Amino acid sequence: MQPKPQIGNLPVYQPGKPIEEVKRELGLDQVIKLASNENPYGSSPAVKEAIQAELSNLSLYPDGSAVELTKALARHTGVQENQVIFGCGSDEIIALIARAFLLPGDENIMADQTFSVYKSNADIEGALSVEVPLVDGVHDLNAMLSHVNDRTKIIWVCNPNNPTGTIVSAEELTLFLDRVPGHVMVVLDEAYFEYVTDSSYPNSIPLLSRYSNLVVLRTFSKIYGIASLRVGYGIAQPEVIRLINQVREPFNTSRIGQAAAIAALSDQAFVKECRANNAAGIEYLQKEFKRLGLAAFPAHGNFILVDAGRPSKEVFQSLLQKGVIVRAGFEKYPTYIRVTVGSQSQNEIFISVLEQVLGLEKAQVQP
């Protein structure tokens, strides 16, 4: 059988190593995973109650239109119900956008080190990806604009950017959107939106009424702590949502996922607490990196990209041997590792193990 020619060399997405696999492979009893930007505090107690209540309905199909979840999210975000679409994680929404709007030969623009799913889905559709270098880890919006032409269909902006953790400010974003031609869709991926505490960060939802070509993506996988249930969403103008819905598979979110997401939305106190804990974790880790003489990007999500000063895959393996899972292998940052901000105890273990791996403990006691 012959596949599409454009997918012959398409890399398979590599998620963070599972804890169980590392324990089995290395014979370890204790492993901490700081690789996939999961919430170390789990999910709201209300989520667990909602899941329990749904267990008697496992034989029933989910609501294919996610009506109750749509109502809850529309109330929460202040948009109309016909402006919302749900997916099996926000990465499915990315795939649906590519399926709905990209043709072979079209162009789409993204940063040269960002969430890899943008490019992989464009590749599947036979579109050309224009990758624009980051500047100090931040999207170069002016340079991205300079690449727009008649063939450009989509510009992807990950904010905060994964893996660098940097943000585009509200002022920068609106100046950019003012200059993007109306035929070009701007997809603003805000998977880490709820973690950001910087006052310059944009409030993007009100921008949807001003820019009809804007799509905002968010997820329940990060701060809401239900990554295993795969619920993400997009918000845009009704006509855009209708077109994306036309290529969506039925029943793409589960009954349990929908119920859990509704419950998660209802507990904003949990979100607030996780945001505060995450900010404290960032402060601790950045202070420790400075103490160790390690450069790190400013962090606005729930992860930090830090320069280990040596090939990152070697550092990854050394940390793995000691039961700490991080992410490495970023093409534009070959000596950097990305570490999820964990609980305080997890952060302390990571720093201790990192010191050992990098040989920094001995270096500090030398006169």
From TrEMBL:
UniProt protein name: Histidinol-phosphate aminotransferase
Gene (UniProt): hisC
Biological or metabolic pathway of the protein: Amino-acid biosynthesis; L-histidine biosynthesis; L-histidine from 5-phospho-alpha-D-ribose 1-diphosphate: step 7/9
Positions of the Aminotransferase class I/classII large domain: 30-353
Catalytic activity: L-histidinol phosphate + 2-oxoglutarate = 3-(imidazol-4-yl)-2-oxopropyl phosphate + L-glutamate
Family: Belongs to the class-II pyridoxal-phosphate-dependent aminotransferase family. Histidinol-phosphate aminotransferase subfamily.
Pfam families linked to this entry: Aminotran_1_2
Enzyme Commission designation: 2.6.1.9
Annotated SUPFAM superfamilies: PLP-dependent transferases
Cofactor(s) the protein requires to work: pyridoxal 5'-phosphate
Modified residues (N6-(pyridoxal phosphate)lysine): K222
One GO MF term: histidinol-phosphate transaminase activity
Keywords: Amino-acid biosynthesis, Aminotransferase, Histidine biosynthesis, Hydrolase, Pyridoxal phosphate, Transferase
